[in-house]
Design brief:
128 residues
Amino acid sequence: MSNLPEPVRVVRLPDGTYTYADQLPAIQAPMGVPQVVHQHIHQAPPDRTLQRVALGSGVGAGTVAAGVYFGPLLVGALTAIAANLALLALLATVLAWGVVTVVRSIGGPDGKAAAKNLAKTRKSLRRR
């Protein structure tokens, strides 16, 4: 018994070139029959212009790779922070409105006077 692999057969193709038998192309349809082409359309690859400019200006490939990796993460983190701040601002506005409404309704004349003083203070601050 030999440990050598089986010899691979060499075949001559109709166009005169040689190839290995295990690498023969798939059987082609006859020339008169139109072939059906299945084309898969994919999303376009991302634009690499900025990375090419950065590499051309002497920035290392590691820096460019970090920018490609951490750039979208940074955008996502900043978006999440902005959404949280917007939610907190809405919550503060609703709570302030609720406190003012309760003070006006329960406080009697003192509560109404306090609300008027607060309104006057706001108007005077706006004018400055």
